Amino acid sequence: NAHCHSPANLFRGLFSGSPLEIWRIYWRAALRPMTGEDFYASALLGAMEMLKAGATTVLDHFFGNQACRFMGAGEAVRAMRDLGLRHVVALTLSDKSYEETVPLEKPAAGLLPEIQRMSQSETREARVWLEECDSFISAHHDPEKLTICCPGPSGVQRCTDELLKGAAEISRRRKLPLHIHLAETKSQKVMGRRLYGTSLLRHLESIGVLGPNLSLAHSIWIEDGDVELFARSGATAVHNPASNLRLGSGLAPVPQFLAAGAHVALGTDGATSNDGQNMFDAIRLATLIHNPRLADFRMWVTPLQALRMATREGARAFGLEAGMLAPGKLADLVLLRSDTPAFTPLNNVLHQLALCENGSSVDTVIVNGEVVVESGRLTKMREEEVLRLATGSLKRLRPGIQKEIEAAQAMEPALAEMYFRVGNQV
Fold first, then answer.
1. How many CB atoms lie within 10 A of CB 68?
2. C-alpha to C-alpha distance for 14 and 31, rounded to whole angstroms
3. Can you tell me the distance from the alpha carbon of 271 to that of 5, in angstroms, rounded to the nearest whole number?
4. What are phi and psi of 179, to 5 degrees?
5. C-beta separation of 263 from 313 below 8 A
6. What's the angle, vertex CA 416, arms to CA 415 and CA 420, rounded to 5?
7. Quick one: three-class SS letters along 103-137?
8. d(CA 31, CA 404)
9. Measured distance CA(14)–CA(166) in Å, rounded
């Protein structure tokens, strides 16, 4: 799973469908009351779901609460180690004030306090973030314990060049991956042109950040020529089909990426914009949703391509010797039963893995040579305990979340106006 946000697992099903910029104010508001205990419970819940559905590794693009050390990311690391899920934790960084990152008209004076509160909860100075990120990596990076830590700038338009280049320098110096959101919505594409006079991807190239160690979540609003730039750079686009549908963000040009030889991995995104962390759902959607837009059926995504995105391409993006069965690769294996409806009758294993399976056939999951799921059940923690901790966290958080969501509602009319205005632009 090449892109998700573990703090979201407690809030599955909480928000109705809305465009990303509106959805995001509520999702970020829900994070503010969370404590380390809640980040631990939320990461446990998602790790359990992923392991039981056959995922061995996850990229957690982590943003939590700045009142916690490392925003609570250390608690997510602890949770995923406790269950035996291999994890890449990319600490989310941003240093631009909120109003600099979205194409709002001049906001009404009454919105300024909420905008300032949002900025204060999400941003720090570039230098402070880079020091924090370096400290986080020093404290928690330990591949022998299944943990890779790396920088994860929030989005190109949300970061100064100083922060983007500093994050890339940390990644190069420490030989780590780098992870960023890219061009998820049309308004982000508009902001790229407004800020840089070019596309967001080309701006990354111009400042020396674009390269094979970079993975870019979503990569939907890609401009002419940028598909070829993706392919030349060796960077990886991370496709999140369920989230892109849920928020109406659009369809990434995945068939065009594949035709050009670009690398594409696959993710679920967080449980507030997908509502689940099942990679078989992502594989099935990636195989199907692009077909209606392509007149040439020869470019349709095949089951084999979707399975490759969910295995070796994700492993490559994070520098892991995994994603395939071969000598010298990591001992991460998933065994599925064949005596299930998904594989009965057995006509074509690849097609049925991609199009019929939903995770219910998963019997055994081995991570780093250790059995962490056996007969469909976790081996390292009682599943009832994971559910109890998650339920208790949300019960404790609910009053604070409701208060924060009500405060965030003031922003919705201005963001709705922006959405329709930008949507009408060519």
1. 17
2. 13
3. 8
4. -135, 135
5. yes
6. 115
7. CCCCCCHHHHHHHHHHHHHHCCCHHHHHHHHHHHH
8. 9
9. 36
Encode the chain (426 residues) as per-residue pLDDT tens digits.
Answer: 999 999 999 999 999 889 999 999 999 999 999 999 999 999 999 999 999 999 999 999 999 999 999 999 999 999 999 999 999 999 999 999 998 899 988 777 778 888 888 888 899 999 999 999 999 999 999 999 999 999 999 999 999 999 999 999 999 999 999 999 999 999 999 999 999 999 999 999 999 999 999 999 999 999 989 999 999 999 999 999 999 999 999 999 999 999 999 999 999 999 999 999 999 999 999 999 999 999 999 999 999 999 999 999 999 999 999 999 999 999 999 999 999 999 999 999 999 999 999 999 999 999 999 999 999 999 999 999 999 999 999 999 999 999 999 999 999 999 999 999 998 876
* The pair of three-digit structure tokens given for residue 379, joined into one six-digit string: 């081996």
CA 206, 210, 212: angle at the middle one, nearest 5? Answer: 155
Reading the block at residue 386, the tokens are 């994971």
- Residue with the two structure tokens 């690849």: 350
| Residue listed under structure tokens 């019929």 | 356
How many C-beta atoms lie closer than 10 Å to residue 341's C-beta? 10
Cα separation, 91 vs 93, whole angstroms: 6
Q: How far apart are CA 426 and CA 415, in angstroms?
A: 19
DSSP 311: I
- Which residues are 371's β-sheet partners? 366
- Using only the alpha carbons of the chain, give its radius of gyration: 20
Which position has the token pair 């998700």?
A: 4
Tell me which amino acid residue 93 is: L
Cα(77)–Cα(176) distance, integer angstroms: 17
CA distances from 294 to 206, 298, 407 (A): 32, 9, 43
Give the whole-angstrom CA distance, residue 40 versus residue 385: 12
Q: Are 419 and 187 in contact (CB under 8 A)?
A: yes
Strand partners, 42: none
| pTM score over 0.90 | yes
Residue 212 near residue 233, CB atoms below 8 Å: yes
